[in-house]
Amino acid sequence: MRFHTRKWVKPEDLNPNGTLFGGRLLEWIDEEAALYAIIQLENQKIVTKYMSEIDFKASAKQGDIVEIGIEVVKFGNASLVLSSEVRNKMTRETIITISNIVMVNLGEDGRTKPHGKTRIEYVADRLK
Q: Which SS3 state, helix, strand or coil, does residue 21 take?
């Protein structure tokens, strides 16, 4: 799993229990998945269609740094299926795992559009 983004847990990210609010974490994951899909599919018109079971394993508190990992599960015709793991850099615990996040590629008309991609591309691949 490649970990692309780190977030610092601030007071506004906490729930009444004083730990990282699950909704805030899901927001961060959704944004990271969207950014990853936009870059891979080379299209800014991407939407989240589905997230599989979300498994909270641990938490984080104010001042902790969490890192968000994204990995490609598969390329569909008009979709990209990702998995995610978030871990706490301070405690080294996994906070959450999500097995499947389905991101869908859209055309100018807002409808599903085939993307033509079949594998992960890196910047070096695109410069050849």
A: coil
Partners of 94 in beta bridges: 87
Give per-residue pLDDT as tens, 36-61. Answer: 999 999 999 999 999 999 999 999 99
E strands in the chain? 2-8, 46-51, 54-56, 65-75, 79-88, 94-105
DSSP helix/strand/coil, 121: coil
User: What type of residue sits at position 75?
Assistant: F
At 89, which helix (H) or strand (E)? Answer: none
Catalogue the long-range contacts made by 42-46 (C-beta closer than 8 Å, 24 or more residues apart).
43/105, 43/106, 43/113, 43/115, 45/105, 45/106, 45/107, 45/108, 45/110, 45/113, 46/103, 46/104, 46/105, 46/106
Contacts of 34-40 with CB under 8 Å at 24 or more apart are 34/103, 36/4, 36/70, 36/82, 36/103, 37/80, 37/82, 37/103, 37/105, 40/72, 40/80, 40/117, 40/120, 40/121
